[in-house]
């Protein structure tokens, strides 16, 4: 029985050595493959960081453009509103001028002295207008 035991121990030892050699033969190429995969993963991570930085900058630029467009839109709306109000103001001035002119004409028609004053003011106003033109 001693011989069988010794043979069994030798077979187990050879099996363990073969197992270790097989494991090493599998692990060494796997280690190289894992190293290459990790290097690729690092490269991809660096590219992703660059893309993320560019995306952040693009979002900031888009936000600035949005704010600028909103500011310009409000400015243009203010100008448009002013132009709308200008028409109303000019109509009011026109109405007031016509009413005042009508009053002056009525008073001047009744009084020859006032007719002479109106004529003098008109000539003076026309003189100023002619100088500016």
Structural Rg:
50 Å
Largest sheet: none
User: Can you tell me the residue ranges where pLDDT is under 50 for at least 5 consecutive residues?
Assistant: none
Mean pLDDT: 85
Q: Structural class per helix/strand content?
A: mainly alpha
Quaternary: single chain
Question: What can you see in these coordinates?
Answer:
With 133 residues, this protein is mainly alpha-helical. It contains two helices and no strands. The chain has helices spanning 2-110, 112-132. Helix 1 crosses helix 2 (112-132). The longest helix has 109 residues, at 2-110.
Descriptive key words:
single chain, 133 residues, mainly alpha, 98% helix, 0% strand
Short description:
The protein is mostly helical and 133 residues long.
Which SSEs are present, and which pair or pack?
Elements: H1 2-110, H2 112-132
Helix pairs in contact: 1-2
């Amino acid at each position: 029985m001693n011989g069988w035991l010794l043979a069994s121990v030798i077979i187990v030892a050879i099996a363990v050595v073969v197992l270790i050699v097989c494991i090493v033969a599998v692990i060494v190429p796997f280690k190289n493959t894992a190293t290459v995969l990790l290097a690729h993963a690092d490269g991809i991570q660096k590219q992703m960081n660059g893309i993320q930085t560019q995306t952040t900058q693009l979002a900031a630029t888009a936000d600035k453009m949005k704010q600028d467009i909103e500011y310009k839109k409000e400015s243009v709306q203010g100008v448009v509103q002013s132009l709308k109000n200008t028409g109303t103001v000019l109509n009011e001035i026109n109405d007031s001028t016509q009413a005042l002119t009508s009053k002056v004409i009525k008073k001047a028609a009744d009084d020859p002295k006032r007719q002479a004053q109106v004529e003098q003011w008109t000539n003076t106003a026309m003189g100023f207008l002619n100088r500016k033109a």
